Amino acid sequence: MKMRFLGRTCLIVLSLLPAVSTQTDAWTVVGSDQPVIAEPGDDVILPCHISSRLSAVDMEVRWFRKRPDKLVHLYLNKKDQLGRQDSEYRGRTALHPSALETGDISLHLTNLRHSDTGIYNCLADDGGWDEEGQTELIVTALGTQPSISMDSTQGEQTRLVCRSEGWDPEPEVIWRDRDGNDVTSLSNTTLLRVSQGLRSVSSYIKIKQQSNVFSCLVRSKTPKPDWESKLHISSDFFPGVSGWMVAFFLTLALSIAAIPLLAIQWRRMDGNGKVTNCTLGFLPNLSIT
């Protein structure tokens, strides 16, 4: 009786060994820890692979977004099951057959749309074990060139308004004065979500007479190009002494002061019987803006 009990115990222990061995050799699926950033119309690869370079040729490989049944791409029974694919991705996805042999289940996604932005899940299933990874895709939209206009309401201080639209993700606005100083803290910015998830931005800043050049930089928070616009505000817009009048009287004063020097130089040249060119190097080159 005792021997029979021990025999059953040994059988139970032995039967558990394959399961323990399988758990020890378990594999994982690894996505990308960095987002894939691209623009509409681009072709990208969403990285995902099985650890230990385990072959995925005989596995089920499923790419999906929010729900497993919303299929971006399905590979099953050693071939693509495109009939079960979501219509939004039809004809735009592919897995590389040779890459599957080394556990690379990265997805090729072509002709990107703004609606493709989001988290993508990659799942591999060998029939007894399944694992899942994630990769984020950001399809950026670089908005329009900022436009700057002047808004003057009666009874209120004049302000500049900077506008741009068609951004995603949310951009930031930076204002600078003519000396390059960041004066963004003096501005007020409003972001609005418009059609197709894109955003428009409007920012204004009150202007002062001593700062007559402003730049408005609308910058994407992703590493893509920026848009910048500048506006020069003429001093004539503000009451005060006209700039061209100052330049005129300064030039006139310098010319009058130079007359005695010209007369002395002429007498010296006349006495020597030579005629030479005379350049007044001290007269400034004035430009009127």
TrEMBL record:
This is Butyrophilin-like protein 8. Belongs to the SKINT family. One of its GO terms (cellular component) is external side of plasma membrane. It is found in: Membrane. The chain crosses the membrane at residues 244-264. One of its GO terms (biological process) is regulation of T cell activation. It comes from Acipenser ruthenus (Sterlet sturgeon). Residues 1-22 form the signal peptide. The lineage of its organism: Eukaryota, Metazoa, Chordata, Craniata, Vertebrata. It comes from the Eukaryota. Pfam families: C2-set_3, V-set. Coiled coil: none annotated. Residues 18-140, 154-234 form the Ig-like domain. Keywords: Disulfide bond, Glycoprotein, Immunoglobulin domain, Membrane, Signal, Transmembrane, Transmembrane helix. One of its GO terms (molecular function) is signaling receptor binding.
